[in-house]
Amino acid sequence: MISRWPQNLATRVRGLAFSALALVTGCGETATSTQRDKPSPEIPITAPTSASPTTATTTLLAAALPAPVADNPQTVAARAAFQVLMTPGSDTAAWDAAQQMLVTLGVDAAPVLIEGLKSSNPIERETAATVCALTGTVETRLQVVLVECLSDSSSFVRANAAAALAAIPEYHSQVMATLTTLLADTDPQLRRMAAANLNSFGVEASVELPKLTAVLTDKDTEVVTPVIQLLGRIGPQAVEAVPQLQKIAFEQEGEIKQAAEQALLLIQSK
């Protein structure tokens, strides 16, 4: 689920983060030796050669480092596509094509998305997280970084990282905690997104009942209706939500009323 609209991202000023690794090597000093007797001309003496300790250490370290791995053509294409997303002034057609390219490339786009998720620029992190939410992820390295993003300073990064990980059972508890917290966010788009992504859960979401029940007073039916449906799937354990659900069923009309009535049947069933 997309966290930003293309025209919003396209008009944001791109921030670049540069990281430099400096390797400083020292020059070994040559010790002075005392004057010795001259060797006889017929017996030439060759002084032994040896690398300075610093130079030798540097050489060994360089040999131990893995050789840089060049991007394959698919990753090169992914990098170019991500650059389009981050370029101010990209038109909607180019933006959509670049995003679709990243989705299509799948695993080959992972190195580029990992770089984006780790960027110091929040717009780059949000963009990378958005693509991950659209594609999901089977790449273990990408999953590890997305889990770290669940505590990102940007709510949009957290929301999209949670959406990307929602289908992976081992991360369910972290994802549910993130999404239910976002239900109280001040941004209505984020609340709706969080509620929609919670629809993939069932009784395991009972651990988040206090936050789910608190949402029932939200005036946005696009937030409340998916949460009501989730409470119904939780079943009898969601009994604390019954009074508020009864109020909604009595006062509201349409889809939200039907959702509340159905949830009450599931919660109160014996």
Question: What's the gist of this structure?
Answer:
With 270 residues, this protein is mainly α. It is 57% helix and 0% strand.
Features:
14 helices; mainly alpha; Leucine-rich Repeat Variant; disordered N terminus; 0% strand; 270 residues
Structure report:
By secondary structure, the protein is mainly α. The protein folds into 2 domains: 1-9 and 72-165, Leucine-rich Repeat Variant; 172-270, Leucine-rich Repeat Variant, CATH 1.25.10. The chain has 14 helices and no strands. It has helices at residues 6-11, 53-64, 73-85, 92-105, 110-117, 122-135, 140-149, 155-165, 172-182, 188-197, 209-214, 221-234, 242-251, 255-268. Helix 8 (155-165) packs antiparallel against helix 9 (172-182) and helix 10 runs parallel beside helix 12. The longest helix is centred in the middle third of the chain and has 14 residues, at 92-105. The chain is elongated and about 60 Å long. The chain starts with 5 loop residues before the first helix and ends with a helix.
| Unreliable parts | 1-53
Q: Mean pLDDT across all residues, rounded? A: 79
Would you report the number of β strands?
0
**CATH topology type of the largest domain:** Leucine-rich Repeat Variant
* SSE class: mainly alpha
Beta content comes to under 5%
Number of domains: 2
Q: Tell me about the biggest sheet? A: none
The end-to-end distance, rounded to whole angstroms, is 37 Å
CATH architecture term of the largest domain: Alpha Horseshoe
Global morphology: elongated
Number of helices: 14
Output the helix-strand order. Answer: HHHHHHHHHHHHHH
